[in-house]
């Protein structure tokens, strides 16, 4: 415990963890997955499992885009282009989910909530790879020449 009674957290360790893109992706993805899964469960109360899937994706995509763009991948640039690419990755993910979910529900006989929990493992992997290498990919910037030797250039790094 710190002198003020709060638990001591190693801020350096937390910052080091948050500097890792994979950790940020897991945090944002975890929150977004819980929100999307919650909406899926809610929509299941009044709609079929595929309609619920599509509705929950519509909600989750909006939340995920903002969080991944600003927190996970920390990019700037053309929002419209990024969003179009982001949705493209989710279309692939949704197509896989649309194929897997009925197999698990109709063929394997799983409850739609259990089936979707399993499908989320597959779609999360697709999502990470797609967003990292397509949605938010930025080309490496060439180093800028410094104007004088007395002012060394500080390179910005993308964690």
UniProtKB/TrEMBL annotation:
It is a multi-pass membrane protein. InterPro entries: GtrA_CellWall_Glycosyl (IPR051401), GtrA_DPMS_TM (IPR007267). Residues 140-153 have a biased composition (Low complexity). It comes from the Bacteria. It is found in: Membrane. Residues 140-159 are annotated as: Disordered. Its main location: membrane. The chain crosses the membrane at residues 25-43, 49-67, 79-104, 110-129. Belongs to the GtrA family. This is Flippase GtrA. It comes from Conyzicola nivalis.
């Amino acid at each position: 415990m710190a002198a003020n009674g709060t638990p001591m957290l190693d801020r350096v360790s937390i910052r080091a963890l948050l500097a890792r893109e994979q950790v940020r992706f897991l945090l944002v993805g975890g929150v977004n997955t819980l929100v999307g899964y919650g909406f899926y469960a809610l929509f299941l109360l009044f709609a079929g499992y595929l309609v619920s899937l599509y509705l929950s994706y519509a909600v989750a995509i909006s939340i995920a885009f903002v969080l991944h763009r600003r927190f996970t991948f920390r990019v700037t640039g053309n929002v419209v282009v990024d969003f179009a690419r982001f949705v493209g990755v989710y279309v692939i993910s949704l197509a896989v989910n649309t194929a897997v979910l009925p197999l698990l529900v109709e063929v394997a006989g799983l409850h739609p909530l259990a089936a979707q929990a399993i499908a989320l493992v597959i779609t999360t992997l697709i999502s990470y790879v797609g967003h990292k290498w397509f949605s938010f990919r930025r080309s490496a910037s060439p180093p800028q020449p410094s104007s004088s030797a007395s002012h060394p250039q500080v390179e910005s790094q993308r964690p």
